[in-house]
Amino acid sequence: MLTRIGILGMGGVGGYFGGLLAKAYAESDQIEIVFIARGETQKAIAVSGLKIITDENEFIAFPSIVSNDPQVIGKLDYLICATKTYDIEESLLALEKCITKNTIFLPLYNGVDAPERISTLYPDNEVLQGCVYIISMIESPGIIRKMGSYEKLYFGSDSAPIARLKALQLIFKNARIDSDFVQNIEETVWEKFVFISALASATSYLNQNIGEIINSNSNRIVYVELLNEITMLAAVKGLNLPNDIVMQAILKLEKTPKYATSSMHRDVLAGRKFELASLTEFVVNEGLKYEMEMPTYKKVLDKLSEKLES
């Protein structure tokens, strides 16, 4: 029986993991990988494939289908979602004809509110929780560059059929994707969110890359203040995160290439729309809900809101 997997969003995350899947199952008669792309990205992949460049090597992968037309895409068994968070509703509603009652969603967004938003759109479907650790980006249409050696994909669910989860885990394993199917997935997702939210907010607010934040006492203080605020929020929400999560985040940052920055900061620099709502404003709003002061996050939100509106 053919298993059809759609990859929605061919950016750094969707492009990289989608490329690994397409490469692994190019000759398979059991797994079909569909890239959901439009514009120049769709054209580039259709003609030349998707090129993945890492620090060690590069390869080109061709999906079974690359399209943004639901009739061409067809019905999907799994849909891996990796667009920007501000595109969730529009991009998923456009694929309504591809979704059956058995379609399982795996969101790999930079935020923690995606599963709830997807379930609002498709209340009868299983929506997993997931997150990734990776530094990768679009170099040009149809070309993804991954920096550094660290990559990890986590996913899980409290309600999805175990057989479907294990089948997805095996699909990832055979594609050499380093993934873990974890029980306490909400806490794993929040652990990533603590890291990425503070980093995205700090790099975008300070307009500095990772090395510039680490090597400046004043910049580092801003980053640590953000970490402390979001960690306190997680604790008040009842999430059981590691006691040393702030130190873990700092150590993780120190192992990251110094010239790298967050995807939100790259979008700010490029003058594009950026994920302020999911990565910064969400934290401020959750703080209000729990009657918590989030002064550093609020300061970042106020400054970046002006930039988003200008």
Automatic annotation (TrEMBL):
Keywords: NADP, Oxidoreductase, Pantothenate biosynthesis. GO terms for molecular function: 2-dehydropantoate 2-reductase activity. InterPro entries: 6-PGluconate_DH-like_C_sf (IPR008927), 6PGD_dom2 (IPR013328), ApbA (IPR003710), KPA_reductase (IPR013752), KPR-Related (IPR051402), KPR_N (IPR013332), NAD(P)-bd_dom_sf (IPR036291). Its EC number is 1.1.1.169. It comes from the Bacteria. The keyword RNA-binding does not apply. SUPFAM superfamilies: 6-phosphogluconate dehydrogenase C-terminal domain-like (SSF48179), NAD(P)-binding Rossmann-fold domains (SSF51735). Pathway: Cofactor biosynthesis; (R)-pantothenate biosynthesis; (R)-pantoate from 3-methyl-2-oxobutanoate: step 2/2. Residues 184-306 form the Ketopantoate reductase C-terminal domain. Residues 5-157 form the Ketopantoate reductase N-terminal domain. GO terms for cellular component: cytoplasm. NCBIfam families: apbA_panE. Catalyzes the NADPH-dependent reduction of ketopantoate into pantoic acid. Belongs to the ketopantoate reductase family. This is 2-dehydropantoate 2-reductase. It comes from Flavobacterium hiemivividum. The lineage of its organism: Bacteria, Pseudomonadati, Bacteroidota, Flavobacteriia, Flavobacteriales.
